[in-house]
Amino acid sequence: MKRPPRSLQACRWLVSFALPFFAACAIIHHDSPPAAMIAPQQIKLAGDIHLANEGWPSARWWEQYRDPQLDALIGLALAHAPTLAIARERVSQARAQVELIRAVSGLQMQARADADRERVSSHGFLSAYASKDPAIGADGPWYWAGLVGLDGHYDIDIWGKQRDLVRAAIGEQNARRAEAAQAELELAAGVAQLYYGIQTTYASLDLLRQLRDVRAFELDARSARHERGLEALTQTAEARAKLLAIDQQIASAEEQIVHAREALRALAGAGPDDLPAVAPAPLPAAAGSLPSTLSYELLARRPDLQAMRWLVQASFDRIDAAKAAFYPSFDITAFFGFNALQMRDLFLHSSQQINLIPGLSLPIFDGGRLNANLHGARTASNTLIEQYDQAVLDAVRDVAQSGSEIGDLDHRVHLQRERIDALSFASDSAEASYRTGLGDKISAMQAKAPVIEGRLELVQLSGDEIEAGIALTKALGGGYRSDDLPESLAGAKAR
Description:
By secondary structure, the protein is of the alpha+beta class. Helices cover 59% and strands 12% of the residues.
């Protein structure tokens, strides 16, 4: 009977030697179930929160305000802001991590060349070469030994550990991409809020200067009456105090514009001369709308939630990789090249050397390392799930609060306009009385002050409404839409 090749005998011996240890390998002592993910019915708004318009924001949502200055500022910020540069570098770093893990899981080959000056031991494996024996080519004990060839190594990923690690790295890369989209959204929203804060202050300044003219006229009139002995000095002092209060408000508003411009410059990453001048422009109508339903659509529309979904997905893959570490691993190591004890013989055909070494590694006693690793992966995953659940609830809250605020501000703006109409009627009556000789000019000027003050309140309400609309756009994801969603939540729960 023909004997099998020695290599086959070695493989059989390796398998027969390893099989008794399979039953003694490290086992999973305990693994807690995954944390519960948020229920769909919690991703919705209360029935009393609604707006006149319905719909999700568009990708370039700021263009709905039809303001070229705002478009230019957001374009500048998206091109030069340091926060976006940082977010993009994180995406590149995550991509490099994916490539690194993929490379580790593939075939590894390297060229190898060694030159070794050694003295052969008289009692070692090569003891015959420790003395001079021309018959066997020994001229020891000193030799230049050489080796040159190719080393190869390949891990056979039977249990999918490396594939799980690659998927986890891809999940992190997708999360970083979503975080970059979130950074763009926050940047655009921040620029828009600062810009309309400046425009609101410009509009307030114009009205404050009108009010100052009224207070200055009143002070001059009171002073003239006091000089003629028609009024006490107290009324003149009160008029002067009102004028000084307006001057304080004007100075404060001008300082607010300077601070907002510098904040805008820092946010956009602009240099001292790179930020374009912000000229006064009319405040636009508030633009806020709510979708007819939120549900899972909000998860795809919010880049921050999408990033957390990908991180949760990556944590599941890490759990699978941690479980695969309990199973035996197989690899193959190979060498092809030349090996000679004498350098002059290195490249002879007879110096060829070929090694093919299949290997098996089986964890038996590890001091609890693998179980600790699995427990750490499960705990990290459950933490991410809890953070994700809270983020979803916070996102629904943000949408609800912004929508409710817009509805409330819209009502208050309507009431304020009615109030201004009533004050304007009183002011017009006082003006008419003055022109017909039935009243004095100071009374007519004083009647204008409440109208201007009412318009100041209206400007502030309008600015608040615009800011709330931008906040709602941000809460709804600002036009972001993910089409490459991770597996469904229902599938994720079972892992």
